[in-house]
Amino acid sequence: MNVLIVESRPELAMLWKRHLERQGAKVTVVGSQNAAILSLYSEEFEIIVLDLILEQGSALAVADFASYRRPNARVIFVTNTSFFSDGSIFAHSSNACAYVQSETPPEDLAAMVEHYASPR
What we know:
Layout: E1 2-6, H1 10-22, E2 26-30, H2 33-42, E3 47-51, H3 59-69, E4 74-79, H4 89-92, E5 96-101, H5 106-117
Parallel strand pairs: 1-2, 1-3, 3-4, 4-5
Helix pairs in contact: 1-5, 2-3
């Protein structure tokens, strides 16, 4: 399982990364739209854990590029805001498979990643 984490807060990204690696995942962590795009050019990912509010760039641009460059990659959006809390993220991003709060326990997020990384 190859996972891309796009998160501006390094401490949160590292927490998620450690939990995913314990499950045997290969994890790449980046903190911006540009770094995510470069990663998507060079590597296959089954799952992208993507913070909806990035300090540098747009999460929706990352998801859109992923749907073009890596059409089989699914996106789990995370956020600490109520933005898109009505579920409309699924209308804006065809590769979205989940939308959760940043405070979701890392073991729960890891279970979701494992679930959605399974072949469809």
